[in-house]
Amino acid sequence: MKRFVALFALVPALPASVTPLAEAAPPAGACTNAEPAHSVIVEEPWAQQLLDPKRVWPHSTGAGVLVAVVDSGVDSDHPQLRAPGKVLPGRDFFYAGNLPGNYDCVSHGTAVASIIAADPVSGVGFAGIAPGARILPVRVTDRALNDGGEPQAIDPQAVGNGIRYAADQGAKVINLSLSGYRDLPPIRDAVSYAEGKDALVVAAVGNRQENAAGSASFPAGYPGILGVGSIDISGARDDSSQIGGYVDLMAPGKSVVGSTRAGGHDYWEGTSFAAPFVAGTAALVRAAWPSLDARQVAQRLTATAGMARGGAGSPAYGAGVIDPYRAVTEGLSGAPAALPAVPPPAVDLAAEREHAWWAQAGSSAKLSAAALVLAILLAVLGTLVAARGRRRRWRAGRSAAKPRPAVRDEPPEQMFLFPPPAVERPPS
C-alpha cells in the first residue's frame, strides 16, 4: 500500500460539531472514516535489522531533542508513543481553531513519528531510531488520499505556518514527509526561517517517477534541506523514489513498519517513511554532539553514510544510505596525520646472490624444457608427413572445392530491442 502526502489546498473551517479536546482521541466530528486499529507486528522489521539502532543507544537515544512532525497529526495514545512527555500536544493547522496536533485520522503522521521515536516494548520487534527524542505534532492535513485515491492536496500556507511554529517551539529537527513540483514562497520562506533558528529540516524527495532524472521536488530541493530517497530490502532504490540533485541520503522506505492510530502497526511504502529514519538519526547526533549546528549535523550524516549502489554523490542515491551508528560514533577528526618515513631495509648481499643464482638456473631450465618440447613436436610432425607422403607415393594433392554461399537479394531482417508495431510484425 503506497501512502504519501503531496502539496497544495485550502484550510477548512472547523466544523460546528467539533469541540477542542486536550486528548489524543480525535475531537468529536474531526475525523470522518477514521482508519481503524491494526494488529501488532511482533517480528523485527528489516529496516531495524539493517540500521540496528540498538547498537547506537548506549551512545545516544536522542534524549532532549525535540523533533517536529509536520504531517497528519500523531496519535499520542499509541502504546509506543504514550510515555509521559514523549508526544507534546502540538498544534492543528488544518482546522481553524485552537486544536492540538496529538491526534491522527489516517495514521500517516503516527507512522512517521513512530519511526523516529517509538519506545521499545516487550514482545515487539519494531522501535524508533531515537526513542529518547520528543515529538512535536504539527497537523497540516486531514487525509493522505482524497476520495479518488489521489494524494490529498495540502494548503502551502498551513505547511509554512506549521514549520514556523515548530521552529518557534524549539524543534531542532523538522520532518516533512510531503513533496510537490512547485516552488511555493510560504514554504520556502518558512524553511529559511527554521534554518535561521538552527533547525535541521529533513524532507522526502517524492514518489512520482520511475527512472528518469530531472523532475523538480520541493521542499526537498530548497538549500539546506536534507532530501531523502527510499531503498528496498535489497538496498536498491525504490522504483518510484525520485532522482535528482536534491537527493542527499537514502533510507529504508519499501515495506517498512510504522505504528498506526488507535494501536498496532502496518507496512508502509514511499519516501515519506524513509525521511523519518534520517530525522531520527539527526536527533541521535544532535543529542550526542550538542555543539554542532544544523549544517554540521547534516554534513555529519552525509559524511558517514554507507555506500549505495549508485556510488557516492549519484543523483539516485545521494551520499548513500543513512548509518546511525557511524553518524553518532565516528570521530571525524579530519585528515590523518602524515605517517613517519619508513627506513629502507639493509640489503643482504649473500641472499641477493643466492636469489640471482636460482633465478638464472630457473630460466635455463625453462629454456631447456621448451627446446625439448619443440623438438618432440617437430619429430612427431615429421613422422606424420612422411607417412602421408608414402601413402600418396609423394604425388601432389588437391583439396575439394567448397560450395559458394548463395547471395541474398535483400538485407537481413532488422533486429528490434522492442517488438515492432503490429503492422510490421510477420504473421505468426
From TrEMBL:
The record's section on PANTHER family has: CELL WALL-ASSOCIATED PROTEASE (PTHR43399:SF4), SUBTILISIN-RELATED (PTHR43399)
| Bilayer topology term | Single-pass membrane protein
* Composition skew (Pro residues), residue ranges: 418-428
N-terminal signal peptide? 1-24
Q: Which residues cross the membrane?
A: 367-387
Q: Where in the cell is it found?
A: Cell membrane
Family (UniProt): Belongs to the peptidase S8 family.
Designated name of the protein: S8 family serine peptidase
Occurrences of domain Peptidase S8/S53 (ranges)? 62-320
Predominantly, its location class is membrane
Which residues carry out catalysis? D71 (charge relay system), H108 (charge relay system), S272 (charge relay system)
Q: Name one Pfam family in it.
A: Peptidase_S8
Q: Which InterPro entries match?
A: Peptidase_S8/S53_dom, Peptidase_S8/S53_dom_sf, Peptidase_S8/S53_subtilisin, Peptidase_S8_Asp-AS, Peptidase_S8_His-AS, Peptidase_S8_Ser-AS, Peptidase_S8_subtilisin-rel, T7SS_pept_S8A_mycosin
Q: Where is this region: Disordered?
A: 392-428
Keyword terms, alphabetized:
Cell membrane, Hydrolase, Membrane, Protease, Serine protease, Signal, Transmembrane, Transmembrane helix
